[in-house]
# Entry
Amino acid sequence: MPLSSVAANAGEQEIPYYQSVGNECTMFEQAFQQRLPMLLKGPTGCGKTRFVSHMAAKLGKPLFTVSCHDDLTAADLTGRYLLQGGETRWVDGPLTRAVREGGICYLDEVVEARKDVSVVLHPLTDDRRLLPLERTGELLEAPDDFMLVVSYNPGYQHILKSLKPSTRQRFVAMSFDFPPPAVEREIVARESGLAAERCAALVNLAASLRAMKGQDLEEGVSTRLLVYCATLIRAGMPILDAARATLVEPLSDDADVQEGLMEAIQATF
Ligand code: ADP
# Structure
């Protein structure tokens, strides 16, 4: 059985379930061994975060995850002086901790972060693997078991928020997408506990809802939302109510679009 589909204990650490779709696990392991940073691209809710936590556990490394947002600055990653008990003390940020202690630092939606973040990432993502901490005067060299992983959703991208070539060309990059139907059915069944045959109908429905993307919808329904839907159905919610709450309302506020989605759902169930 491929390791990637095993939810087992690695020592103390439970390995989060991740169903691999291609060679992404091997690629990640190789990048880790070769000390290369990795960029994951793909729509929201398609398994990027789960993949990273799975790989970190499989490699037995601590994971430092940061969800980036438009106020996130380099200091939020590296650290800052804080007043503690009348004293000013330097407190490492998650990136600095990962560099000092070893481990995987995952910056989710990195394009959202402020521009000064790339200044910190550049020396870390070339062969120097250095993290300069101007405020403390330190120059940290990343240990062999440090890895930087970043993700972004090309679908949300607009001119002001895309990764500059000088940044993206520092990463080994992989594209993620919604899994093929047979795999997605297995994931939804496993995550929700709903019978596989019933999940198959949801996955088929997702295909027709995803086909509506672009017309009026910014994003297609995610695997995450399918898991939510299956979870509510398994808990006893009527199918149409569950579908409306998970596959319609989160996707659009527009009454016409919602109606179109509901029609597709009613045609299936
Ligand atoms: P992303 O980081 O791409 O936004 P997540 O990793 O948070 O998405 O995935 C959302 C949910 O979808 C997960 O919590 C999990 O339930 C499910 N999921 C998606 N893809 C997979 C997969 N390949 N294996 C296992 N679970 C998956």
The first strand starts at residue 9 and ends at 10. The chain has eleven helices and eleven strands.
